[in-house]
Amino acid sequence: MLARHHDPIVAIATAPGRGAVGIVRVSGKGLAALVQALCGRTLKPREATYLPFRDAQGQAIDQGLALYFPGPHSYTGEDVLELQAHGGPVVLQLLLARCLEAGAATDPATGQPCLPGLRVAQPGEFTERAFLNDKIDLAQAEAIADLIDASTEAAARSASRSLTGAFSAEIHTLRDALIHLRMLVEATLDFPEEEIDFLRKADAHGQLSNLQQTLASVMQRARQGALLREGIKVVIAGQPNAGKSSLLNALAGAELAIVTPIAGTTRDKVQQTIQIEGVPLHIIDTAGLRDSEDEVERIGIARAWDEIAGADAVLFLHDLSRQDAMEYIAAEAEIASALAQKLPQTIPVIDVWNKLDRAPAAAAIAAEGAGQAETRRGVWLSARTGEGLDGLRRILLEVAGWQSAPEGLYIARARHIEALRAVSAHLQEAADQLQAQGPALDLLAEELRLAQNALSAITGEFSSDDLLGVIFSSFCIGK
Ligand code: GDP
User: Fold this and answer.
1) Closest ligand 1 atom to the C-alpha of 285?
2) pTM of the model as a whole
3) What separation in Å is there between the alpha carbon of 246 and the centre of ligand 1?
4) 20 to 30 A Cα–Cα from 44, which one of 27, 126, 173, 329?
5) Which of 476, 477, 398, 475 is nearest to 142 (CA)?
6) Domains of the chain by residue range
7) What interface predicted TM-score (ipTM) does this complex get?
8) Which residues are known binding-site members?
9) Which CATH architecture best describes the domain 149-226+413-460?
């Protein structure tokens, strides 16, 4: 474990800006002297005490609640002190600075610094300690970040389930079954004569196929959970006035629209997140898909195309009321060929025929083929009246791979899905070995060992410092 994991740390735990309450949090081993310096008294564990937080001269910086959680019964597993003050940025900065100063100041009782080495925490460092001190496993730690970042209620609820350990419990069940099977196989390695008979009697084959079935079910739910976390990226393309913003508003209107600026995106691309059945859809409006002489606009358009290339689906919006205008139709063909050229073939393009209310003939055709008004590749609707929107929603969920919204989903990440895939591949190799004529038991044992390792990576039983760095650095400071 790196030395930095032993430093005492401090951070403002609440979001920047003004608020009713703001929290400064300290974690370290042995906080008693610091508590005395800041609060002028000792604190009863896990009891809120209202008191002044004092500066070095004994003047109150603010009054508030102090909470002291001696380790290991704390969030990080170390001693934790929480100071709940008024939520102004200056007050909190003063308190933070005061903590650092008090940590470095000499404790009159010992003649030593109150809390040597106290420093400002890195993002996610409190949670990283909780993980390193076995308060939570890695999947639970990730669920904390996912809960904070959740963009829909369903995502928040499933993150909350993962946080309580529901996902980890499934992984442990799989792991235990795997260990059982490994013990069986490895025992036979010692008695090569009876090996095959022994495995047959113990129904190794049945055990393995049960394991594969359980894994498939976990994977299926993890994929759905990942969908809740990541959502899908949908680009709306089409000519000006086709009704792109109207469609976005109509889709967002029925459900809670949450506008989340995604990190790294710039203002030249409009992205909104809406939800359908709790699945976040990040919708990108590409108003500017056209030839342009303007250099700035061209850069914007090039970026828009980059975004489109990374989309999971494209809605190509057509205006039914302008289908008899030659120029309009010609421009449609241009966009269509640009999409065909620039989009990978795997990305579905859904033709959306808008303004059905203004095209009675088309409406009649759509009605005639009732049920066929929507196909995987096309849907007829009116963003204004809302007719046909449900069909579009269904198609989008289908494209996303969303199956239903079963209770008991847990949030999952791409990292988990990859690990589960690796487990599945090793189990399949193992199953092939087991079925082969004269199976190579050492290879079988090796595949099972690799499967177990891949599984354990999810909960972080074996995890490199690099991986931890990647995971925890995406947290907010103070968490
Ligand atoms: P954008 O430029 O593609 O974003 O198009 P807008 O959403 O701004 O819509 C352009 C115009 O078409 C506006 O006047 C909308 O009110 C109108 N419009 C959009 N959808 C419909 C529809 O379904 N029916 C009718 N009649 N008008 C629509």
Assistant:
1) 4
2) 0.75
3) 6
4) 126
5) 475
6) 3-134, 149-226+413-460, 231-400
7) 0.98
8) 25, 82, 135, 241-246, 260-266, 285-288, 382-384, 479
9) Up-down Bundle (1.20)
Residue bearing the CA closest to ligand 1, atom 25: 355
Best CATH choice for the domain 3-134 from the list 1.10.760.10, 3.50.50.60, 1.10.10.10, 3.30.1360.120: 3.30.1360.120
Are the folds of 3-134 and 231-400 the same? no
* 343 alpha carbon – ligand 1 mean position (Å): 26
Per DSSP bridges, beta strands 279-285 and 313-319 are unpaired
Q: CA 87 to CA 272: how far, in whole Å?
A: 30
Mutate to test the pocket of ligand 1, among 236, 245, 246 (most ligand atoms within 8 A of CB): 246
Q: What's the CA gap between 93 and 395, in Å, rounded?
A: 50
* 286 in contact with ligand 1, CB cutoff 6 A: no
> Residue 243: CB within 6 Å of ligand 1?
yes
d(CA 311, CA 321): 28
Within 310-388, where are the H helices? 326-342, 360-368
Is the Cβ–Cβ distance between 359 and 323 less than 8 Å?
yes
Each residue's pLDDT, cut to its tens digit, for the chain (479 residues) gives 456 678 999 999 999 889 999 999 999 999 999 999 999 999 999 999 999 999 999 899 999 999 999 999 999 999 999 999 999 999 999 999 999 999 999 988 899 999 999 999 999 999 999 999 999 999 999 999 989 888 888 888 888 889 989 899 999 999 999 999 998 888 787 766 666 677 777 788 899 999 999 999 999 888 888 888 888 899 888 887 888 888 888 888 744 334 343 433 333 456 788 888 888 888 887 655 565 667 776 776 677 677 777 888 999 999 988 888 888 888 888 888 888 888 888 888 899 999 999 887 766 665 555 444 444 468 899 999 999 999 999 899 888 888 766 667 788 888 899 999 999 999 999 999 888 877 788 899 999 999 999 999 999 887 677 777 777 887 777 78
Q: Ligand 1 in contact with 248 (CB < 6 A)?
A: no
Pocket test for ligand 1, best of 241, 318, 319 (most atoms within 8 A of CB): 241
Annotated binding site for GTP: 241-246, 260-266, 285-288, 382-384
Quote helix, strand, coil % in the chain, to nearest 5. 50, 20, 30
For ligand 1, say whether the CB of 381 is within 6 Å of any of its atoms: no
CATH no., domain 231-400: 3.40.50.300
